[in-house]
Amino acid sequence: MRKQSCKAKTSIYNISLFTVGKNKLKKFAENETFENLFQPSFDDVWRKDHPIKGKWNTSFFKNDNPIVLELGCGKGEYTVNLAKMYPNKNFIGVDIKGARLWTGAKDATEKQMENVAFVRTRIENIVSFFDKDEVSEIWITFPDPQPRPAKARKRLSSSRFLTYYQQFAKPNAIIHLKTDSQGLHEYTKALVEQNNLKVHFCTNDLYNSNIVDSILSIRTFYESMFLEQGKPITYLRFELNTQAQLHEPELE
Q1: What's the CA gap between 168 and 54, in Å, rounded?
Q2: Binning pLDDT at 50, 70 and 90, where does residue 222 land?
Q3: Residue in 68, 72, 69, 129 with CA at minimum distance from that of residue 100
Q4: Catalytic residue among 43, 49, 133, 144
Q5: For the segment 5-49, what is each residue's pLDDT rounded down to a tens digit?
Q6: Domain limits of the chain?
């Protein structure tokens, strides 16, 4: 069999890139049609409140059910599956990647799920979307662990981000962190201990623990990939004290 020439390989590579780009454009166009997906521009929410802030229950969900966030939701596997399990709660997935959000938004739209919404934005802008006491629970599923100590403030479970969440979380709101990163798990555990936050569950190997259940067994795209690589999955569940001044752990 003859080897492909460099020119032929380049042509195949370019065709592949074109196909991927075309598929993304198709998803972006379809995203515009989803009523459950909010996609404001950066300028619309940078240090500004989005019109939906404080009005999720009255204007979108049209009920008084508790609101649960999934931050860095990716394709929205937790958002959609939790919404199926708990029809008496409202679920909102937040991510910056529109091509990923398309999966969850389309799935929820086709299933006519009225307790699901998605927001395309950076988590740094999260306070632009939610008002005081508007959120009851937060899931952080497989975020970028930001392993370098210098970037600790970018971790979604850092004191910086927890302070953001304090601005819209109900008193003693529940925070779930599920990650393959032992470093992020240990860092967050240290932060929780440093600030005397109440821990409900903590394990550095979820699927070999006694706390795994139908909720925790929901597997995201990334989780499935990590499990195939033999990486243990960690889980930490704790309460957020919305009145406390939070401090970074003396870990690094």
Answers
A1: 9
A2: confident
A3: 72
A4: 144
A5: 555 555 544 545 445 577 888 999 999 999 999 999 988 999 899
A6: 6-240
Q: With contact defined as beta carbons under 8 Å apart, do 68 and 43 qualify? A: no
Long-range contacts, 45-48 (Cβ 8 Å, 24+): 45/121, 45/125, 45/128, 45/129, 46/125, 46/128, 47/128, 48/128
Question: Is the predicted pLDDT of residue 183 greater than 60, yes or no?
Answer: yes
> Of 223, 53, 22, which Cα lies nearest the Cα of 121?
53
Q: Per the structure block, which two tokens stand in for 199?
A: 């821990």
Q: Where does 6-240 sit in CATH, by number?
A: 3.40.50.150
pLDDT in tens, 118-165: 999 999 999 999 999 999 999 999 999 999 998 999 999 999 999 999
Of 213, 147, 135, 136, nearest in space to 179 by CA: 147
* 205 pLDDT above the threshold of 70: yes
Give yes or no: 144 in active site. Answer: yes
